[in-house]
Amino acid sequence: ISGYSLVIQARDSGTPPLSSSVTVNVDISDVNDNSPVFTPANYTAVIQENKPVGTSILQLVVTDKDSFHNGPPFTFTILTGNEEEEFTLDPHGVLRSAVIFKHMVATEYVLCVQAKDSGKPQQVSHTYVQVRVIEESIHKPTAIPLEIFIVTMEDDFPGGVIGKIHATDQDVYDVLTYTLKSEQKSLFKVNNHDGKIIALGGLDNGKYVLNVSVSDGRFQVPIDVVVHVEQLLQEMLQNTVTIRFENVSPEDFVGLHMHGFRRTLRNAVLSQKQDSLHIISIQPVAGSNQLDMLFAVQMHNSGFYKPAYLIQKLTNARRHLENVIRISTILEKNCSGLDCQEQHCEQSLSIDSHSLMTYSTARISFVCPRFYRNVRCMC
């Protein structure tokens, strides 16, 4: 407890008794009685041979229960094990190489490291760091090509994470880093450490081929990453049809079924080869294991087929479609639960282009806007 606040009252013996009170604040001064604590108590680290001088090997983590003026900054010192000055330790507790290590010269070093706090008198603690020198990387990283599909309303893409590169390396201790050619950084970014791909706002319609590579420090391997951007037209929303699937997650649909279903759907509903099928969005149905896919079909002369026509085509081809994935229902309107009696039901769809949903697998990623369906009885 760092302090107390006391209210003290004095009362006399008169009739009637009179009194007054005063507040007394008592601050407890900290004494430097806690030593720094290493977490964990001792360390094990590895470094590959032939790494350049200055390579980061380990970050020491130290805490102190005393108040801030008796704790950090800490002073780190290597007490033993560094007689040949193979290592350096910076003021932030980062252990780095000071030489180029060779596995044939030595395979292991044991350092005794001291941390000293800033109190008076100073408190110290010690840890042991075991550093193993291993052979340099002998295997190249392997990465899976990634194809990304982005659907957005006209010129209204807000940006965000659109996918993740999946890469592996047979060398157990290799640390993989990802890079993107500088000329593409005005539109995209790649997280150096985890391979996440980020698109910046305002992407135009079209196809982008990203020049991405993954490196283990010795080998650098290119990765095929292709991004397709499709901008929706407002007219599409007035001519949409929803197919509802049973027992499928968005990721499974994207990774396992989307290519095959798109091909089968094109064969079912396109009247001419020049017609265009637009998958607008996919979205889980709340409170169920169903999935809605929203699509429209554009005629080659730029108009759109009416939902009633598409539903007729789908109904005729339903058996072929279900060879790919099980369909729950085909919706033009979603008026279940509404009893409009002498009136009729009207459906309206709205797209929230700033609320993007990203469904990503190792090979394919689908980014689409969230949609809302509103129904009401009309005269």
From TrEMBL:
It is found in: Membrane. SUPFAM superfamilies: Cadherin-like (SSF49313). Keywords: Calcium, Cell adhesion, Membrane, Repeat, Transmembrane, Transmembrane helix. One of its GO terms (molecular function) is calcium ion binding. GO terms for biological process: homophilic cell adhesion via plasma membrane adhesion molecules. Coiled coil: none annotated. InterPro entries: Cadherin-domain_protein, Cadherin-like_dom, Cadherin-like_sf, Cadherin_CS. Residues 4-38, 39-143, 154-245 form the Cadherin domain. This is FAT3 protein. The gene is Fat3.
